[in-house]
Every structure is written in structure tokens, then in C-alpha cells.
Design a protein that fits this description.
By secondary structure, the chain is α/β, with parallel strands linked by helices. It is 22% helix and 27% strand. The chain folds into 2 domains: 5-220, Spore Coat Polysaccharide Biosynthesis Protein SpsA, Chain A; 229-315, no CATH class. The chain has a 7-stranded mixed sheet with strand order 5-4-1-6-11-8-12, sandwiched between helices. A 4-stranded mixed sheet has the order 16-17-18-19. A two-stranded antiparallel sheet has the order 2-3. The chain is globular, with a radius of gyration of 20 Å.
Length: 317
Amino acid sequence: MPAERRCLVLAAGFGTRMGSIGKRLPKVMWPVFEMSLLELQVRFARKLGYEEVFINLHHQADEIRKRTEKNPTFKDVRWLFEKPEILDIGGGIHNLASRAEVNYQGELLVLNSDQFLWFNSEELANWKAGAGDWDALLLTLAVNSSQGYNQVKTDSSGRFLGVVPNAQLERNVTMNTYSGNSVIRLDRLEPSRGVSAFFSSVAQPEKKVMTAQLKKGHYWDFGTADRYFKSMTGILDVIRNGEQDNFVSFLQAERALLVSKINHDIGSYGCDVPGLIHLGNGVPVSTHPAGVILAGEPCGTGTRASLIFESEIQYLD
């Protein structure tokens, strides 16, 4: 692999949408069955051919390093600590690009740590080749405007023209949004220091910023507590229904998802309680509500779906 190809996994956020458990367990360390979100992103980057992986940290940085220091997946990862303030996505990219060994050279793949948008190295190469002369390539996906996402506006060639805030969009229509994943040519950037937003210091509309659309359905979101639960149970549904999904196949190949732990009849994992994904210790009783036990002993009661982390219960809407 050429040294000029690197990956940055964005992991510096505050995780405020993960509820009370997110204050104790960093979002990037939430488990997707047998592996954390962060470990899976590192493995995904390497599967795409980006062996030199950087991870930026700010909030709960010490806790994340503590939880990864003995994991061999992170042995060669390069950590970027953003202090004293978080640099935003644009600032984080420039922080990496300005390092002496990078010096604003080469290609940078940017991955969001809490979402998986499936594509392979061949598809990525085809998107880059089809974009012509580009400074940045944004990966987009089709969503419903009522889901709250902003719209990526493009011309007929797929060139990025700007972002339309969701509040300005018509409800319940299909439109494209920025996935948070991109490829940046660092030598095309004008160096910047400190805090900056992605669309003001990296992917400005006046630059040659192109877009490529991800295939329908290749999208798994773990970015809020509710979306985390829906994605976890959705993965089990894919397997139960015999459907084909590249991300689920990736989980199985990496042994992040063990088919032997799935009870297909009742939609559970690691236990015999309907709708419960049990990643902790102990044996839950049959009256335990549906949800995910991230770590610790079963302790939920009643019928409301919940998340449990080391005896803390967080109920879902």
C-alpha cells in the first residue's frame, strides 16, 4: 500500500445522543455484538486497503485509550489527541494533514465512527475514477427528508454545490445527504489551524468537490441510543429472514457476530429471552424486557425496552 493513503476515523465527539450510559461508556466503545464500533471501523478501513489508520480523540480520550490498549487491532493505530478544545471535523483533518510525516500530501479516507455505510475497495476506486479531477469526494446516500438530515445539493455532473438545511426542505421526499464518509486529496487543501467546520475548510463548494451515491440499503446507523437498538435488532432480523447484507457478512467474517449465539425463533442473542441481546454476564430470567445488555448483570424489569450497562438501566422511547 502506498504510504500516501491514510484513513482518519472520527472519534472525538461528545456522544450526547447516547443518553446516560453515553456519559460513562464512550460512544465509539459501544459493542456491536462482540466488537466495539471503533474496532470495526479500523478493521473496515484496513479491508479497504488503508493500513495506516489515525483516530482523533477528545471527549473521554483516556477512557477510550484504556479500553483499547490491550486490543491487537489497535497496535499500529496512530492516535491524535485534540486539546484543549475539540477541533470539529475540518480542524481534525487539518490537524492530521499538518503532521510532519503527512505534510499535506496523499489521500485521506474519512470514516464516521458511529455509522457503517458499506462499500468495497473496487467501488471506491470506480467512484474516484468516475469523478474526474477532484479535490474531495463525498459519499452520499438517499434518505427521506422527514428523517431530519440535511440535503446535499449537486449539479447534473454530481459536483457539490452546497448544503440545504433540513428545515428548508419539503417533508417526506427522497433526497441525498452527506454520509460523513469522504476521500480528501490533502495536497489540494489550503492549510488551516485550529477549529474549523468540514464545509468551510475542506469541502468548500467553490472547490472541485464531487459526490458519489452509496447503494440503497447499505447503511447502518448507531449514532443515537434508539438507532443503536434498532440497528442491533435489525441485524438479527436480517439473519432470521435469510437476507443478504454486506455489513452483516462483514460482522460474521470478523467474528464480531457469532451465529451460534443467535436464537432465531425468538430474536435474541446470547440468551433465551425474546428480543434481548445479552452481551454481559449472568443469566436473564424469561420476564426480562427486550433490549441490549451492553455489560454487567441482567437487571431490567417491566415491559419497556432498555439498554443496560453495569447495573445502569436506560429505557428507550
